[in-house]
Amino acid sequence: MGLIMKTPVLILRGLILPLAMIASPPLRAAGIEEEVPAKVITVTASSVYSAAQAARHLVDGSAMQGGLHDNNASAQTMWHSIQQPAPTSAAAGLPTITF
User: Fold this and answer.
1) Using an 8 Å Cβ cutoff, are 55 and 79 in contact?
2) Cβ(65)–Cβ(43) under 8 Å?
3) Which of 68, 74, 37, 69 is nearest to 53 (CA)?
4) What is the largest CA-CA distance in the chain?
5) Which of 18, 38, 53, 96 has the most CB atoms at less than 10 Å from its CB?
6) Integer Cα distance of 24 and 22 in angstroms
7) What share of the chain is helix, strand, coil (3-state, %, to 5)?
8) Selection from 34, 32, 54 nearest residue 44 by Cα
9) E strand or H helix at 30, and its extent?
10) What pLDDT sits at residue 95?
């Protein structure tokens, strides 16, 4: 009796996935043609927690080791904002969210 109850569920699951794949819009991706050297990228931040957590870490690859993040316990290879920064407006041209 348990097998009879499970069969419709399995059939339904088997139909939903293919239908979802057919009905979903096509995904678009952009390939990277060439690597952009970090030295030609300018990074700025409204605040920096300390010199060890500078904004340059967003692009310099300092936290990467063999394609994986280094998980530095003191977070010295990542950028951090100051604690409780004062609210500011978004930069010109960025979308805004109103609550």
Assistant:
1) yes
2) no
3) 74
4) 68
5) 53
6) 6
7) 30, 5, 65
8) 54
9) none
10) 76
Task: Give strand pairing partners of 65.
Answer: 68
The model's pTM is: 0.42
Distance of CA 72 to the CA centre of its chain: 19
Q: For tokens 């930069």, what's the residue?
A: 91
What whole-number distance in Å separates Cα of residue 90 and Cα of residue 14?
A: 46
Please list the pLDDT of the chain residue by residue as tens digits (99 residues). Answer: 545 556 676 777 777 777 777 777 776 767 777 888 878 888 888 888 888 888 888 788 777 777 777 777 777 778 878 888 888 777 788 777 777
Token duo for residue 45: 């931040």
85 neighbors 99 (Cβ within 8 angstroms): no
**CB contact at 8 A, 48 and 85:** no
Nearest to residue 82, comparing CAs of 39, 30, 47? 47
